[in-house]
Design brief:
With 229 residues, the protein is α+β, with helices and mostly antiparallel strands. The chain is built from eight helices and eleven strands. Helix 1 (2-20) crosses helix 2 (26-40) and helix 5 packs across helix 7.
């Protein structure tokens, strides 16, 4: 509930601020969304909860006479935003996670001291046409290494292009939501398989062992958030 409300209010704040300014303050948008969520979940309709946040806004600047796309990314907690450049077959950008301690990420909500103005990170980067922006929860980042994410995305794109040559397969895939939905499904399927494998070597296991905990395999996930554009 908290995550959906914050996203709802954030989108409204961005839309309102874009009306009067080409450069909205996205940290302030997140702060206002947080405050509006607190108000909406307070007594008499008290709703307890916390959420990490990751937002991405696409804009552009005119450089010379050419419109150049830019991505504005905010992050608070252990969600992650990555930008993959297929033509270079590499990850060109990745946000850093924010934690208080192992398994306790920064977050917004009930009994959390974290606030967007004080804790959210903002990144602005130039991107190019055909870059892929991925926003994922810890259900993906705790189970898949960066090179795993890159491999799944690139292989899924290649498979999609092959399937397009087979009309009946392409029509089936298109009916399921298109290329990016297919890539997202493949990424989610891979993360879920690792989460259920007790012998998997995962980022979650490595982080746990760094603080002296005996943890094997991946982190079980419920519903990791995926958005690819």
């Amino acid at each position: 509930m908290w995550s959906r409300l914050i996203l709802h209010y954030w989108a409204l704040e961005v839309e309102n601020r874009l009306t009067g300014s080409p450069k909205p303050d996205l940290i302030e948008c997140l702060q206002r969304a947080y405050e509006e969520t607190v108000e909406a979940t307070s007594s008499p309709n008290e709703i307890l909860g916390t959420t990490t946040t990751a937002t991405a806004l696409l804009s552009y600047k005119i450089i010379g006479e050419t419109p150049t796309p830019f991505l504005h990314v905010t992050n608070l907690g252990d969600c992650q935003t990555l930008v993959i450049r297929p033509r270079e077959r590499r990850i060109v950008f990745k946000t850093d996670g924010q934690w208080h301690w192992f398994d306790c990420p920064m977050q917004l909500g009930t009994n959390s001291v974290d606030k967007p103005r004080e804790n959210a990170a903002l990144s602005v980067l130039e991107i190019e046409e055909n870059d892929i922006v991925i926003v994922v929860s810890d259900g993906v980042t705790n189970n898949l290494w960066d090179h795993d994410v890159l491999e799944v995305v690139l292989k899924s794109l290649e498979k999609w292009e092959i399937c397009k040559k087979k009309r009946e397969t392409a029509e089936y895939l298109e009916s399921r939501g298109g290329r990016m939905v297919y890539v997202a499904e493949q990424l989610l399927t891979t993360a879920r398989a690792v989460a259920l494998d007790p012998a998997a070597q995962t980022p979650y296991m490595e982080k746990a062992q760094e603080v002296g905990l005996s943890v094997n395999g991946g982190m079980h996930l419920s519903d990791p958030v995926l958005l690819l554009t």
